[in-house]
Amino acid sequence: MIAFPLRARRSRLFAASLSVLALVAAGGAVAQEAPADQAPAAPEPHVVIAEPDKAPEEPAAPPIPAVWAPVPTDADGASAYGLYLAGKLALMRGEGAVGADFLARANRLTPEQPRVREQAFTAALLTGDLDVAAALAPSDGSPAFVEAGRLVQTVQAFVHGDARAADAALNQPIGAPHARAGIMITPWIAAAAGDWTRALQPAPTTADPLTLAIARVSRASLLERRRDYAGAEAELKGLADAPTIGALFKRPYGEFLERRRRRPEAIALYQAGLTANPDDTGLKRALARAQAGERPPALPTFRAGAAQGLTTAAFQAANERGNEFAAVYLRLALNLEYDDTTQYTLAQMLSRAGLNSAARAALERIGPDDAAVYAAARAELASSYAQEGQDQAALTELRRAAAALPADPRIALMLAGQLVQLKDYDAALTLLNGPLLNTAQQPSSARFLRGATYEAMNRIPEAEAELWAALQSAPNDANTLNYLGYLWVDKGLRVQEGADMIARAHALEPNNGHIEDSLGWAQYRQGQFDTAVTTLEQAVDKEPANAEINDHLGDAYWRVGRRREAGWLWNRVLTLDPDAERRAEVERKIADGLDDGPASTGVSN
What we know:
By secondary structure, this protein is mostly helical. 66% of the residues lie in helices and 0% in strands. It contains 31 helices and no strands. Helix 7 packs across helix 8, helix 26 runs antiparallel to helix 27 and helix 28 (529-542) packs antiparallel against helix 29. The chain is globular and about 90 Å long. The relative contact order is 0.09.
């Protein structure tokens, strides 16, 4: 049996552990419950502060002068253009707060440039500096910016205790594309200002059906606060009995019944809801609470009601691919009333919008009071750090998540994957073979990672058994096909069968550079050197900074007589931070080349 040194499996083991992290994180390390009447968010990013699925309107803006005379500078001698460029660079690096500060300073020097103001306003919004955003709110230009500015100014007036000013601002309703958020906050702000006529008005019929239905829930809460219990029940019962959307509103109706000391009716309502939707975690918790005789949720305060409305608008915006809109609404909601679950949702929206630094800052704020939300936040942080190669930071976060939820197998699997990445194989196997993960119902990802760990420890028969079992559970999983196929090809065990597996994996994921490298290496092992060169060149195009793939292409070049190019590739490998064993072998190849023995007698020789 041919030895399989670490240098040949390094990138695949990294990809294997990362794939487990990504798989578990994508499903949510901890299942998060969406509030009643809210839908799950969509993962696709969208244009910053542009109406979802529509191009932003271009405001009429004078061009920035080619030459300023004199050049606008601030008290510190910084020029407007320099501040603008520094702000844009900071935003590109994910340093939102720094970028917002630079852009705000540039705007103060160039008030005649609305585009600078809009970018400073957007940066302040998405980084959470809402008072600065309110001060920078554009008064003309694109409705996406103007109405966002009015929304922010209205909410911030309410946050600072001036409900009457906020209510007066809503005499002119918030317009598109933020009209939905305006509808959600208007009744709560009006009620806080004592304007009950506006507070209890039905929502405009021009709103979409779901927004109208959610507005009715808010109206029911305000009617209940006014002790109009019959009016409140009429709204909630009408929603709960609706044929298409009624399941969404059984929980708020049940909570109303519990507060009216009608617990048996509430229990029956929750049970009916679970019959229609047995996976609704909110209904499950409500039913358990009611059956235990615990106190029902209290009516929301005015600020909490407005915050819930903005959170609902955020979920709806995210479903329409408006992740930046969602992030703005969630920032405003958190400024009204802080909640860890809302903070976690904000972090997800920021991440989907590409604002990774801001997303991490949001996750860091989440404390341990709610173990499930805290563990989910730490797992998200770990996944983010792992993607950037910050392995120790990822491990620290996963250990915190596991301490918060020690019985959660998903977090245990992520932790095992990170331990594999750090080559702490014994610790990883302790988890993988422990009672949380080594069960009859274990997912294929657990078997896959266990097999990859055994292979890294050169325990090949055990690795084959686990990877084969994983493949039986998920026969079309590209990672498993690639990993087991590569193992067989590289060790000369079942070369043709392994090559066929890799070809299947490549057909499933043709843009995966690691799998394309495996395909090229299988061709190399079978002596198909010209074909291997073509395949490995494509793999290098996809993963240009991968030391192993560049090394493989160098070997293939040597075999087809392109020895100068082989030497160039091997020298390039030395610049790509290879591990010590690969570095030593590549240095030997640079000095001596490859021997003329069979191509399958070693990793690169």
